[in-house]
Amino acid sequence: MNVLIAYHSDYGSTEKMANAIAAGMKVSQSDAVITLKSTEATGLNDLIDADVIVFGTSVHMGSMAWPMKKLIDQAGKLWMDGSLEGKVGGVFATGGGFGGAGGGVEQTMISLYSNFLEHGMIVIGFPKSLPAYADGGLQWGPYGRTGNHEGMPSGISDAALAAARSYGAHLAETSANIITH
Ligand SMILES: Cc1cc2nc3c(=O)[nH]c(=O)nc-3n(C[C@H](O)[C@H](O)[C@H](O)COP(=O)(O)O)c2cc1C
Predict the structure, then answer these.
(1) Residues whose CB is less than 8 angstroms from the CB of residue 163 and which lie 6 or more positions away in sequence, other chains included
(2) Where are the domains of the chain?
(3) Tell me, which fold does domain 2-180 have in CATH?
């Protein structure tokens, strides 16, 4: 199983979530080949080569950061020939703003899924029965709040990283079942 985790991270928190998802996937599927790349370093061939594509981004102005949108728009070429159809997709996000996870985390994750579904991909959410969901999960995937009360970056919580590992394990196990059958 080839996995691509492509993420946008300015201050490192979203990257830590990406690493935690990879760690969780490895616990579940030790033979998974996992490639972690920033959105800037991700090419269309990385998407084509993956069985499982995971997109993660920090929230910028209520939605995904523009480098993630740039990658998504560039991958529009792949919509033409359907080369991502049938691949498995998962998402995660971080937000620094006020409220439980910052303003726009859910909208961001839903937008990422919308793109996957446009390609004909199969998307995997985050069931609430799984470990660490209660403190770092939404039905869409794991999320983390990364800002303090002044709105400045303050890092990612252990709860968010635990949710990311839990989601990673679930995503890998579910993907393995889908890919095999
Ligand atoms: C240009 C910009 C816009 C942002 N807009 C939002 C926002 O609308 N809502 C929010 O919760 N956080 C917002 N943030 C905060 C980032 O989401 C936060 O810094 C991010 O989670 C940190 O992740 P990172 O360490 O991976 O960069 C914004 C940050 C930047 C740089």
Answers:
(1) 126, 132, 133, 135, 136, 137, 142, 143, 144
(2) 2-180
(3) Rossmann fold (3.40.50)
